Amino acid sequence: MTMPISMATQVTCVVLGAGEYPDPHPRLPRHHLLIAADGGLDHARAAGLRPDVVIGDFDSAAGPIPSASDAEPAETIALPAQKDDTDMLSALKIGWERGMRTFHIYGGLGGRPDHSLANIQLTALLSRHGGIGFLHGDGTVVTAITDGSLRFPGHPCPEPSVISVLCHSDSATGVTEKGLAYRLDDATMSNTIPNGVSNEFVDGVPSYVAVLDGTLVVTFPEGTPIPHAVTSHQSSGGLGAIDRVVSAAVNDGPRSTAAHPVVLYCHRPCSTCDKARAWLDDNAIAYREIEIALHNPDAERLGMWLDLSGLPIRRLFNTSGRLYRSHNISSRLDGMSRDEALAVLASDGMMVRRPVLEYADGVLIGFKPKEWRDALLSYRRGIRV
User: Fold this and answer.
1) Domain-located, residue 164
2) Domain span holding position 265
3) Any idea where the Thiamin pyrophosphokinase thiamin-binding domain is (predicted)?
4) Do residue 204 and residue 310 come from a single domain?
5) CA–CA separation, 156 vs 225, rounded Å?
């Protein structure tokens, strides 16, 4: 039998997003970790709050990004714009990694409906891992509970105060609602039938929403006491590593770069590639990453790199690589024509010097920070030096 787990004693993580905020600005609990996700940094400054962590690609932040030169710098994690995870999910991953299991998220509702829906999904993600998240915005609080219950204390309800309970998982069984205007006992709900909309709190009466198996999304008015959450769903694993790339599933192919102005050809075990990747991430430059050992460039692309770089063809070879030495390329290269040398390079991605960075105006072969900084000036967003 799984024992219920109370989240009442958990340290709280407060995440500030870029959406709509209640007025006045949020009051922080006594013990908390404060994370600003991208444009949430502007809201933090407006409220006189100093985040512990600032994370995002900073495409919606209007003010300057914190740097090491600040009097009390926040920990700043710059992400590329093109990646699978939203900045909000990245913020939750940071909080979870640091032991947080209760999250209050401001600026996650209102504005674009796709952003609101995505953030509601994240409350379900937290609940399925044994945590809980409360989205605040647009006069509403949204949360999710998996295999557990939410207990609301009795509170004044001078006007109709609506609570809605919707199924997020394919189905939810053992759904119970007590202490509300309409009682529900051991019901089964589906995520295609919105039959849990518009129940009401009763003035001064404690209430209870529970689900035996499944995930419920629950909405209630801002100002309602935050419910005490109990779940039998054990806290399991993490939310995953911070995402910095677009997954291969959404790529058109290794040679399609129309939607990605900066493309990094690299090899994961290569330490120089690690430095190049870190430099791009630190400077919030969006890029698409291609594993050169799996998607070796063809002779046409290699010829383009040669022409754009203005380098001698020898500089395109990975001269410290095993293939270069085992094929005795050093002594053979002078006797090769351009086409012959390009054919050798195209035969295996490990023949090619790395990293290679394609961008709209040219190509960079190898990693030299000053050279990359000068070339990519127009791509920078909030460089930290």
Assistant:
1) yes
2) 248-379
3) 148-217
4) no
5) 10
